[in-house]
Structures are given as structure tokens and as C-alpha cells.
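new request in #modeling-help
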Amino acid sequence: MRRFAALLLREERAIFTSSIAYVVVAVFLVIMGYTFTLTLFLSHSPTLVHLFFQIYVLFLLTVPIITMRLVAEERRLRTLELLFTAPVSEVSVIFAKYLASLSLVLVMLALSGAYAITLGILGQPDWGPIWSGYLGLFLLGAALVAIGLMTSSLVSNQIIAALLSLSLFLLLWIIDHFGWLLPDPFDALVVNLSLLVHFTPFATGSIFLSDAGFFISVALLGLFLSVRALGRR
Amino acid sequence: MADCVIVDGLVKRYGWRVAVRGVSFAIGEGEVVGLLGPNGSGKTTILRVLGGYLPATTGTVQIAGIDVAADSLAARSRIGYVAEDAPLYDGMRVGEFLHFMAAIKGVPGYKAHNAVAMAAKQVDLSAVLALPIGRLSRGYRQRVAIAQALLGDPPLLMLDEPTNALDAYQVIAVRKLIRSLAGQRTVLVASHVLGEIERIASRVMILLDGCLLTTDAMREAGHARQLRLRIAGPASEVLRALRQIPSVVAAASEPGEIGDGYLVELAPTQPVSELARALIGQGFALSELTDVKRDLEGVFLNLTRRAGIVEAEAP
């Protein structure tokens, strides 16, 4: 446990002392603030649905930046050799990196909570969809970070890792558009790979176990493949 | 003396390329052993397999009685490893990094502070503990890498090219440091610098193209007898005649000699007179016959040349 705590602490420090983290959070908050204010003044309705879809898009764009250096940088600098000649397992290294990156996503979500509080002060929002929206965003973030970690584990160049993650995210975003063109039963199969199809119910206040299961499955698959990729030395 | 490292039939392939070809050796407790070989001969690969970083394709490796493939984590907890060019976390401060390494090596929290202080003192790092690693000179980086390897008091210390790209003063300091560790723990040093290995190690293994040519080059230097001959006549005929003499183990033209110089290795118990008699009997004019005191360089050249001849003669 002490070994894992040390790995996690090192990763947390690496993330929260990097300028990239602060730039990402700042850009995220500026865009969110603009969207929140605009939708509030235009719609005059106490809802965060628009905000949730905005965060969904921002996660697709910012998570690759958060995860790109996780393993790729260690591979490039050969510090993996330092780690894996010490008695630590691939699983603990990957899990520490995953939790540290997810904690930054959580910080971003927590800061966006200011908008929900503002809404609560100014009006009387329906809190159910707000809670379900945040749960959906957390699950989406968990899945995206796992995919980002996996692509970072595959290559030794941060930029390539980020582009690979971004491509995968965009593909999983729009894949349902292709799915509708396919014959049965492939249409349902491909449509069900869509991030947006599984996120929309959360954002609009409906929680389905199948949607939660999808994000959890993607996260676990991403972590499993990351461990496998890290074992390939 | 019990063996700290046992390697048996180690083979490592990268795809189709064979990096290590059936290497076997053992290292006793407290020995300081050098692994000498040219760049690309497979030294780093062997160290990485021993360190549990790479899996062996076939063969077994035991560290302090633990099979590295069967229980990699337990084996790794008995190793201190210094990788080539000392890869470190540049953003961390030296003290912070050493505490991190102590934690992942399983040094208990209450002992970590003392362990770090001891390692830092041993490699003379105490003055730079608060500095970021990225701001250190190469010599200090190497010291940090050695200090982290000492944490947890592992019985085996492995160093890959420890004096690579260091200046003369830093080389002397690192060499002195490694020598000071002799006897306290088993040390395996890989290097392509013959002079370094000769100064540091008490036993030298020579590796060429993934094959281990000898597990004790020093002993070969002590036992084999090498002679320098000067014989007039066509080199091909002289070499053929020399190789036909039963007491001759190896014969080759002397490197750097354009004329009629030859280096001949005799079987340990064979008299020199028999060689001289055989040559004169075949009508060769023998003008010089002197003993060559062989050093590690001679053994290295001789073994690698012999391996080259065997390879060239292979169908």
C-alpha cells in the first residue's frame, strides 16, 4: 500500500505542478462560464443540460492533453526502466497514473459545481437531472482517461498519443451516425459504441444501468489494455 | 561462497533478432564482476533481464535463490539497478526522489529517512538533496542513480555503463565508489570500456554478439601462454603450418604488423621447444620467439578474434 501511495503521490505532484493542468482548467472554466451565462440569460430556465453537453465536448478535447504524457513521457525518458527494476507491478503504476489524471477531471467537475450553486441561489432548479448529469460526466471522464492512458502506453511521443486519443474520442462521438447506415444487427452494435448515445440520458436526467455499465466497461478495458501495453517492453 | 546470481541458457530475442544466445554464468556473493563487450553485444539486454525489466525468451535467471520469471517482484526487491545514462525524474528534487524510491522499494516509513541519509552520504550527495535533479551535472546524476540503487540494501547491485560520458574526475569518483562497495554486496558492472572493467572488477566476463566468450577472462590471461614469433615466408603458409602443430591453440598475424610477426597461443602445459622444433623442421626461418605477458586487452582481442574466425569459417 505504501508503494502504491508513493506512486500516486508522485503522479499527483507531476500533474498538479505542471503548467498544462492549470492552462487546461483555466480554458475549461472560461468557456464554461461563457456558456453558462449565455444560456442562463437566453433561456431564463434553471437547467444545466446545455452546460453538460458543453462539458462533454470539452472533455473530448482536454482529456487527451491531460493523459498524453502519462506513459509516453516515461517511455521516452526511459524512466520506466527505473520503475520496473524496482518491486512495483504494472497494475499499480497504471492505476496510480489513472487515479491521478482522474483527480484532475474531478477538480474540473468540482469547479464547474459553482454554476449549479449559482443556479440554486438564483432559482429553483430540478436537482435530479443536475446530479445525474454530474454522474454521467464523471463516468464519461473515467472512460476517456482510461482510453487516453491506453494510447499514451502505446507510443513514446506525447503528441502522437494526444492525436491518437483525440481521433478515438471523435470516432466514438460520431460513430452512431455511421451506425444508422448499417444493416441489422450491426447498426445497433455500432450505435451502442457511441459516447453521446450513452451520455445523453444522464445529461437529461435519466439513469440507466446499461449506460453506466458501458462507461465502466470502457474504463476497465482501457486500463486492461494499458497494463498489457506497459508489459510490452 | 553461495551464488547470488545464476543464469542458465538465457536467450533473448527481439522479434527475429537474437540479442542474447544461450548465456550461462553464476556470480558468487560479494563478487565484483565485469561484463565486457562492444556496443550492441547484448550487455544491457542481459542486465535488463536480470533486473526483471525484460522477460527472457528462454532460459532461467535466479537472483538470491529467486526465479526472476516466477516471482519478479521478490527478485526485484533484491536488486539495485543503475540503468545506462541514469534515467531519472528531472522535475523531482534529489531528496524527494530518493524518498520516493525508498517507498517503492518497500523501505518502511520509519526507516526511510535514515536509509536516504545513509545512501546520500555514501555517494556524497548530502549537499544537493534540495536541488532539482534536472539541474545536476552528469556526475551527480550518476551518483543519484547509484544512491537510489543502494536504497533497501539489496544484495545485488547492477550498473550499466556507469562511467559513460563522465569527465575524468567523475570517472575516478564513480570508480572509487564502486570499489568501495566491493565485499559489502555482489556487484555486476557492464561496460564497453576495457580499462574501466579491468580497474573495477575482480572477475571479467566477455560478451560478443550475444555469446559469452568467457566467464573469467583474468584466469585465461593468467593461464594461457602467448608467444610472439617472427617467421619469414608467405603469411598463409606460415599460419597453416602453425595451426597444424598440435600444441598450438590459436595462431594469427600480429595486429598492426605488416611484416612477419605472429601471435601464437600455446596449450598451457606444452613446451615452447616443441613448437620451435616443428617450425624449423618444416623449413621455416624462425628469427624471434618471445613470451607475451597477456593482459585483459590481449585476452579480449584474442577471444573476439577467435570468435570472429569461427564465425567467418562457419558455412
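bot summary: The domain at 3-218 of chain B is CATH 3.40.50.300 (Rossmann fold).
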